[in-house]
Each structure stands twice: as C-alpha cells, then as structure tokens.
Write a structure and sequence with these properties.
methyltransferase activity, MeTrfase_EgtD-like, Rossmann fold, transferase, binds N,N-dimethyl-L-histidine, eight-stranded mixed beta sheet, single chain, alpha/beta, EgtD
Length: 315
Amino acid sequence: MKFYFHNYQPEFEDLHTAVISGLQQTPKRLHPKFFYDKEGSHIFDQICDQPEYYVPDVERDICETYADEIIACLGKGCHIIEPGAGSSKKIRFLLDRMQPAMYVPMDISAEYLRASAQNLAQDYPHLPIHAVCVDHTKPYDLPSEIPCHKRVFFYPGSSLGNFDPGDAIHFLRDIRDKAGQDGSLLIGIDTKKPVEVLNRAYNDAAGVTADFNLNLLKRIDNELDSEIDVAGFYHHAFYNEPEGRIEMHLFSHKEQKLRVNGSTFTFKPGESIHTENSYKYTVDEFKALAQQAGWKSAQVWQDTKKYFSVHLLRR
Ligand code: AVI
C-alpha cells in the first residue's frame, strides 16, 4: 500500500456562533455545512437511495456510459484531486478503468477520511493515495508531494450547487489556480428540469430529506445548551424559479420560542429557517459561470433526459 495522510487539522466552525448569528438574521438562516454530523452524513447516504433523488443514479449512469470518452480526455498518468471526497465511492468508476499516477482525497473529517481512504488503498494497492484532511472551502495549499502537472480536480454530485453563485465562482477560481497550467476539472452539475421532478426530489415520500433537515435542530438541541421543540417545525423544500434553486426550509407549526445558550428567538406560525440552497444550471449557464472563473469548457456529457450534466473544464 502507498498510503499517506496529511492532517492540516482544520478548525471546525463554531456551531454556537453560527447558530446565534444565523437566527438573528431576517429571514432566519442556518448554514448547510452543519447538516453533516455523523447522523446527518448517515441520513444523507439514505437520501441518495431514495427513488425521487435522481442525482447519484443519473450521474453514475452518465459516468458509466461515457467512461471511455472521459478517460481518453483525462489522459494517462494524471493526479486526481477530490475536494470533499467523503466515502470516495464516486471515484471508483475511474480507478476501475484507468491507472492514474495518484489519488488525493480531501475531507474535513479526519476519522472519516482516514477510514475511507485506507479502504480504497486496500482495493487499489498500487495507487499512491495522499489523503488531505482540510476544509477545502477555506484557503489552503496542497502538499508538496502532489506533482504540479497533470492535475485533474474531481467534484461530483452537484456539490457546487450548494454554493451561492458568487462563492461558486470563487471556489472554481481557487481550483483553477491550484490545477496548474495543464490542469482540468471534471465536475457534476444538476440541471434545470420540470419543477415537479425537482420538488419531489427534495420532498421524498419516505420523509428522509425531512429527517435530514430536522436533524439540524436535533443537533443544535444536543450539542448546545438549548430548548428546542423539534416537533414544532416541519420540513418543506421548493423550487424558486427566478433564483434557479431549490430552497430547503424548516417552518414553524406555531408561535413559539427557541432558546440557545441564553438567547431567545421568537417564531410566528409559518415562519421559517432557510437551511439550504441547491442551484440548478442549464449547460450554457454553467459554462458561463465556469468561464467567469477562468475555465474553458472542453466537453459535456448528459443523460438522455438531460437531468444532469458532467463537465470537463480546462484552463
Ligand atoms: C450535497 N448536495 C449536492 C445535495 C443537493 O442536492 O443539494 C444536498 C441535499 N439536500 C437535500 N437533498 C440533498
């Protein structure tokens, strides 16, 4: 095994400060990054198994269908870098078919990253793996062991959709700078589609997305000194057409107060906490966004229904 672990010891953002400042805003907000505690990450894996949430299946189908073309575009001996790699499941379609010179999974959770990267190292014993524990949304430098040429960033799952467009451009620009002169980015982007399909995907019948959203309040209730009637809130997600995004909210069933570490927040019936945006881009809209970050579109692959897109960008 050629497994190396680089721990940059990222600071976890303070939940307490973020909750107080988010709930002081009008409308009230909580940042989606706080969804992903152990329980939240587990529920997110379950969302990916829901029939209404088409994203993982359609992206996998595109990658499987066009694997040969994608590999031909990436070329031999590349160094694949995956920000927010999590379980490193999605990279396997490439690793099963090609031999990159190196794989660099990055994640903020050291425990999770080490376990999944070691797992991968066992399955691909000849592949050098440099796992980097870092918050990829904050400034960082890649370890010097990662060669500066033939860098391919891999950012699947439409995770970029959870950034507001300005932040998305900033993130894409940072990746471009890190990719180097001959670098590229293979990225999965969810597209605009009939509103009913989008609304169903984020309001699944089994209520898994609802559990995911409500888990944020449970987490705050468990980790902070607080009084929250979690059952006093319900999940609802809807497509905001002018903004081109799904919005997830936690709506209050009633007039109520929520207390966190001595601060009290009052809710009117129907008032919400806005917890997530998930932007959807047409192929041309995403190309324009990427261009603003200095990338050039090299290739786009889509499924037959055009529900999802996989873009290859070059510098
Ligand atoms: C992680 N991210 C791309 C998901 C999305 O579709 O925006 C998060 C999610 N929220 C509810 N369902 C899925």
